[in-house]
Structures are given as C-alpha cells and as structure tokens.
Design a protein that fits this description.
This protein has 310 residues and is mainly beta. It folds into three domains: 31 residues; 78 residues, Immunoglobulin-like (Sandwich); 182 residues, no CATH class. It contains two helices and 26 strands. A five-stranded antiparallel β-barrel has the order 12-18-21-20-19. A four-stranded mixed sheet has the order 2-9-8-5, with no helix packed on it. The longest helix is centred in the N-terminal third of the chain and has 31 residues. About 7% of the residues have low confidence.
C-alpha cells in the first residue's frame, strides 16, 4: 500500500468516527431532556380544570361548562367532552350540557395532549320547569312544573263557538329556552273561518246548551262569545296531559272571547254570577262552593292562581 492510500483510509475512518460520535451525543441529549411528543407539541399540557364541580338542573335545563387547559401557553388546547350517562345528561363538543331525565351523571373533559381530565357531577331534578303563558294575559305567573316522564314539545287548544263547534285552533311549540306562549286570535271569527259563528251568551232554559251561561241577568242578550277549551300538551302527536289555571283549592280560571261588553248577574241553585266582560278576551274564575253555598262565577280574579299540569 502506498503512502497516499494509507492517508486516505485514515481520513475515512476519522470522518466515520466523528459522525458516529456526534450522532450518539445527540441521542443522549434528546433522551435526557425531551421526547417525541415534546418535539410535536412544544409546551406540554400539565392539567385541565372545569368551571363547575357540581350542577343541579331541571329536565331540559341547560348550562355550559368551561374547560381551562394549563399552562395557558400549552400548544395543544384541544379537549373532548363525554358523559357517563347520555340518557340522563347530554353534552356537546362545546361543553353545553342538558338535563334529559331525572338522575345523576358525570360529565368529563379530557385533553388531547396528555390525556388529562376533570369532571363535573350533574344532578337532574325529576320535575321539569316550563315558562308557560298566554300573550294576552302577561300578568299571571308563568312557572309550570311538569312531572317526570310528562315532558312535551307543543301545546294545542281549540276555541268553541256556536253549539260548541270548534271555530279555531291554536298551536305553540316549546322553545329552546324552555318556554311556550300561546297567542289568541285578536278577533273572531278568524279570517280563515269567516263563516264560523260565535255562541249566544245566555241559555233560555235548562236544556238549552247553545248558550254559555244560564245566568238570570245578562245585560246584553245580543252579545256573542267563544270559549277556550282545554289546553293540551303533546309530545309530537301524542297527548301527554293538559294545562289548567287553578289555585289548587277548586277554583279554576277560564278564557272567553266577547264581541262586545256585557255583564252576568243573579243566581241559580248552583251559581252566583258576578262577572263583567269587555270586548275581546276575558278571564273569569269559577270559585268552588260548598254543601251550603253556591259556586261563584266572577271576573274578580283571586290571588294564588297558577298554571298546573294534569
């Protein structure tokens, strides 16, 4: 081997040894201070918290949970939400939870980086609270408690006219904020039923059911009226109950439309009439009597009336 060949072989060996040494040193450095995930994610997630540890909701109640990933500078802030029982509590990708049925479930948020987690216990009450109202009577309490298993998504009510014929129907849905408002026709008959007839206000005798009231004293026998029938709650097209206005002591509220003002007075064996109606929609109450006193039909509304689901 010539002198030149020996020098070239030595040079190649030196270069190979130097590159191997540098590679080993780099691997030792990486093993000591970082991992593959560190290289991919940058600053790593250390923990996550959730804004509430416990939530109490009615059925259909909603609230949004907020997740905080720490440190704030962590590069991967992605999280996923889950529930231990979606039949009790549902949750979406933004942490918005909803009570579905009575019971308890745990909602958990988990980080994509590091699989860190935090949770919130959610308790759903058995009765659902709905804000129920009739637009033309805004001063009445609107809270309606719906028993467990009787949740509904729409309400319907018919309006009776001449000889109790249905002359109009109203329907209203439950909104996303758990409220439902019925809006009654401003005038009757409605434009889509111009041929519909209102009922006469009084009955001529005990067998005359074409009139609404057998009151002995009616200020205007020419007055015409219509009445709101039962307010019925539906789940889809399935009837699940009805909604009444009552104080729980046998006193019930009813809604009637009048084409002009009139008054009812006098008494029968069963009723005392003390009612004054104005043109448009009116609320009156049948106050329950006793074994010795008659019931009272009055437009003087007592305290304590509220919406009840039956």
């Amino acid at each position: 081997m010539s002198g030149i060949e020996r020098k070239l072989r030595g040079l190649r060996g030196g270069l190979a040894g130097g590159l191997t040494g540098m590679l080993l040193a780099g691997l030792i450095l990486l093993a000591g201070c970082t991992t593959k995930e560190d290289i991919e994610y940058g600053i790593r997630v250390e923990s996550v918290t959730v804004s509430l540890k416990r939530v109490d909701l009615p059925i259909r109640g909603r609230i949004t949970l907020v997740a905080t990933v720490l440190p704030a500078e962590a590069e991967n802030q992605n999280v996923t939400w889950s529930t231990s029982n979606p039949a009790i509590v549902s949750v979406d990708e933004r942490g918005r939870i909803r009570g579905e049925a009575a019971g308890q479930a745990t909602v958990t948020v988990t980080t994509e980086d590091g699989d860190k987690s935090a949770s919130c216990d959610v308790f759903v009450e058995g009765d659902e609270l709905i804000a129920f109202s009739i637009a033309e009577f805004p001063d009445f309490p609107t809270s309606l408690r719906v028993p467990f298993g009787k949740d509904f998504d729409n309400v319907r009510v018919d309006i009776s006219g001449f000889e109790w014929e249905v002359i109009a129907s109203i329907r209203a849905g439950v909104t996303r904020d758990n409220s439902v408002t019925l809006s009654l026709p401003a005038s009757l008959p409605t434009l889509d039923r111009p041929d519909a007839q209102l009922s006469k206000v009084g009955r001529e005798n005990s067998s005359d059911y074409a009139g609404f009231w057998p009151a002995p004293e009616i200020s205007d026998l020419g007055a015409k009226v219509a009445g709101l029938r039962d307010i019925v709650a539906f789940r889809g097209d399935e009837r699940v109950g009805r909604i009444s206005l009552t104080d729980g002591n046998g006193n019930f509220g009813y809604f009637h439309y009048a084409d002009r003002p009139f008054t009812l007075g006098g008494r029968t064996a069963s009723f005392v009439y003390q009612a004054s109606f104005s043109a448009g929609w009116n609320l009156y109450v049948n106050q329950a009597g006793t074994n010795t006193t008659p019931s009272v039909c009055t437009t003087e509304i007592p305290d304590g009336l509220g919406w009840v689901f039956e």
